[in-house]
Amino acid sequence: MRGRATNAMPVRANGEGWAALDVNNLVGRASAPRTVTVDRDQVARFARAVRDPRPECRDLDAARRAGHPDLLAPPTFPTTFGFPPPDLPGLEWRAAAWVHAEQEYAFYVPLHAGDSLSITTWVTSARRRRAGDVETVWIELEECGVSPAGAEAYRSRMRIVGRLGTAGPAS
Amino acid sequence: MSGPLRGERIRLDRDDIAAYAAASGDANPIHLDDAAARAAGLPTAIAHGMLTLGVSASWLLGQLPPGTALTQLKARFSRPVPAGAAAELTGTAETADAVTGAFQLVLEGGETALRGSFTARPPVAPAGPNPPDEEASRHDA
User: Fold this and answer.
1) From the DSSP assignment, how many helices (H) and strands (E) are in chain A?
2) Which is nearest to B46 in space by CA: B8, B81, B89?
3) Pairs of residues, one from chain A and one from chain B, whose beta carbons lie less than 8 Å apart
4) B92 interfaces chain A, CB cutoff of 8 Å
5) Of A126, B56, B64, B72, which residue is least crowded by CB atoms under 10 Å?
6) B70, A107: Cβ pair inside 8 Å?
């Protein structure tokens, strides 16, 4: 995921760009489930990076005193599982030609270091919009994280926007 | 709690953005490299939208009673936040069955960069040293 954020755009696997994206053929496409385990050091680093003031996100003793089994993950920590989004069949993301327009989360249970989750991402909406000369593609992705016991821990919905014409097909 | 939240001026410098990129795994170069940002039509490197939302959530949680958990969080990223730009977080909260509220991050020039809303669940039980008086007297009886 990290090594590939250099070129300019999300493209279909065949190398075409936004303009060629068949939005009618995207809805329902889903990533393969991937299993993640919440890493304690990453929780602490993430908490510092977003300036979470709660000691239970950084200090194990404070977390245990507050009744947590391990460090408590800050609310937006699930972004580390799904951003940039995983490749979906026929849709490979490349950074820098799309923007994150909206984000929603529902949190069902607290997330702690050491927790394992199965993450799935799928496309719920894809369409083109035109405003004057500018045409954009709006893609809505949903993602859920499920515990080994089968309980949904969180759900995410993100809207991302690609602007046609800002980046040509990869060449 | 009900009413306005305590406003806070924030600034996300390049080091802050780099630390978030490393902690989150989102190494999109438009956040780290001015040239990459310009190639994408931006004037300069910008903070991750999710960094601005993460900092907003931290600001909220810092004002809610300890043990409060967010149950919903929603944001619209309407303007990029350039590295080093000054901005201010403001918002309001209301308490009924749950705590709900709205917030925004406004750049120094007056443009709104983020508009959000949240729902939070107050701490589940008064596990701390101050149980309600009625409870205490019942135990004593």
Assistant:
1) 3, 5
2) B81
3) 126
4) no
5) B72
6) yes
Residue A32: partners with Cβ closer than 8 Å, 6 or more residues away? A120
Is the distance from CB of B29 to CB of A96 less than 8 angstroms?
Answer: yes
Contact B51 A49 (CB under 8 A): yes
Computed over every residue of chain B, the mean pLDDT equals 89
ipTM value of the model? 0.88
Nearest Cα neighbor of A17 from A122, A127, A134, A137 is A137
Beta pairing, strands B69-77 & B8-11: unpaired
Residue reference for tokens 């780099």: B18
Rounded Cα distance, A120 and A145, in Å: 7
Of A107, A127, A102, whose CA–CA distance to A117 is shortest?
Answer: A107
SS3 A82: helix
Give the H/E segment covering residue B34: helix B34-39
CB contacts under 8 A, B 50-69 vs A, are 50-51, 53-55, 57-59, 61-62, 66-67, 69
A11-50 pLDDT per residue, tens: 443 334 666 677 777 888 888 899 999 999 999 999 999 9
Let me know: does A122 contact A116? Beta carbons within 8 Å.
no
Question: In chain B, what is the greatest distance between 2 CA atoms, to the nearest angstrom?
Answer: 74
CA-nearest of A28, A25, A8 to A128 is A25
Q: Which two tokens stand for residue A145?
A: 């994280």
- Alpha-carbon distance B94 to B102, whole Å? 9
Nearest by CB to residue B58, choosing from A8, A74, A101, is A74
Spell out which residues of chain B touch residue A79, defining contact as CB-CB under 8 Å: 24, 26, 50, 54
> Interface of chain A against chain B, CB under 8 Å?
1-2, 5-6, 8, 42, 45-46, 48-54, 66-67, 74-76, 79-80, 83-84, 95-97, 99-108, 110, 166-167
pTM of the model: 0.86
Task: Return the ∠ at Cα B87 (arms to B121 and B42), rounded to 5°.
Answer: 110
